[in-house]
């Protein structure tokens, strides 16, 4: 089996957000009982803001219900399982519950949960740090 060398290419903030917007799911990372917790979720990108839906009992809802919100990370990727080529984007920012009734209804119309159950809360993640890499085939330069 021949292995193709892979290189990482840094992506700009705009390239990273465009790729994030092309993905339908990702992973939200937050602190739960002083330990890291990760949950797969589907999302939409509204300009630069990541929007997810959750239910009342979800751990992330309790953290984002605070006035200052909660610091979270969000990751999405598209990496081929055979070639291991693709991209990965990580966003670090502040997550807050969306409370405006009009905005809530708009997001509920555009973001359909992919799990059963009542997903009655909407969380917005405002990115502070956006990093992305593309994994490409190629030989390292001189």
Automatic annotation (TrEMBL):
UniProt KW Metal-binding keyword: no
Keywords: Oxidoreductase
Pfam families on file: Pyridox_ox_2
Keyword Oxidoreductase appears in the UniProt entry: yes
EC number: 1.-.-.-
Single GO molecular function: oxidoreductase activity
Enzyme class: oxidoreductase
Protein's name according to its UniProt entry: Pyridoxamine 5'-phosphate oxidase family protein
Species name: Actinomadura gamaensis
């Amino acid at each position: 089996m021949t292995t193709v060398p892979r290189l990482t290419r840094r992506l700009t903030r705009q390239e990273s957000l465009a790729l994030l917007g092309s993905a339908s799911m990702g992973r939200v990372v937050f602190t739960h009982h002083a330990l890291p917790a990760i949950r797969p979720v589907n999302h939409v990108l509204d300009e630069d803001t990541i929007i997810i839906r959750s239910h009342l009992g979800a751990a992330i809802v309790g953290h984002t219900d605070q006035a200052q919100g909660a610091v979270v990370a969000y990751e999405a990727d598209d990496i081929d399982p055979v070639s291991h080529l693709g991209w990965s984007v990580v966003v670090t920012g502040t997550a807050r519950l969306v409370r405006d009734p009009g905005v809530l209804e708009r997001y509920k119309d555009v973001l359909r949960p992919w799990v059963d159950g009542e997903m009655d809360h909407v969380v917005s993640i405002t990115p502070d740090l956006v990093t992305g890499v593309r994994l490409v085939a190629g030989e390292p330069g001189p």
